[in-house]
Amino acid sequence: MTEARLFLREPGALFWMLVFPTLLLTILGLIPSFREASPSLGGRRTIDLYVPVVLLLAAITAGIQVMPSVLTGYRERGILRRMSATPVRPAALLGAQIALHGAAAVLSMAVALVVGRLAFGVALPEQPLSYALALVLTLCSALVMGCVICSLSPSTKAAGVVGSAVFFPMMFAAGVWVPVQAMPDLLQRIVQLVPFGAASQALAQASSGHWPGWWQLAVPAAWALVLGWFAHRQSRWE
């Protein structure tokens, strides 16, 4: 509850996690050509492709851009070291931060889905179970990636630099600048090796009513497991 109150006192972080993804979707949806069906996209509209991209952007922003600076700041100011001498273990604080940022990402995804459906007529996924599974696995990999950034960064400034260095390539892999489905075949194969590129394809499959390929779900799951193990080994409280 304490971390939630502190969390709500950061309007900048809340904007980037809760408002920016839907704002970006709204701006793109207001472009007339993005609301027209394109033969090169199989009869789909560009805005249809960007809804899953915005959902992935919410996970990337919460896990990679916002959360590492919070945890690194706690360690840099000695909060984690002091908490280690109390009944509240630092691991509980880490769990609270992961839960808060994960919940913010889920809320942001829900808002983007509603806006996409009501404002621009984007169809809801025909395979909601696999769609949700792909989002959960991808969100886990984003949050664990943020834990790795925190474990490797000696200061808040360093966490910001490292986070930005990871943030923009992951945005590209998710299809923020060019949807993955519109990329050349070779580039699609490359970005699908990272969790957000694979998740983009998984969400596209689920949206059209098909169960995603096993590898499209295995890639974000594998990243989450490997990075989780690495973050656990590298984490330090002071």
TrEMBL record:
It is a multi-pass membrane protein. Pfam families: ABC2_membrane. The chain crosses the membrane at residues 12-34, 49-71, 92-119, 131-152, 159-178, 213-231. Keywords: Antibiotic resistance, Cell membrane, Membrane, Transmembrane, Transmembrane helix, Transport. PROSITE patterns: ABC_TM2. Residues 12-238 form the ABC transmembrane type-2 domain. It is found in: Cell membrane; Membrane. Its main location: membrane. The keyword tRNA processing does not apply. The keyword rRNA processing does not apply. Belongs to the ABC-2 integral membrane protein family. This is Transport permease protein. It comes from Streptomyces nigrescens.
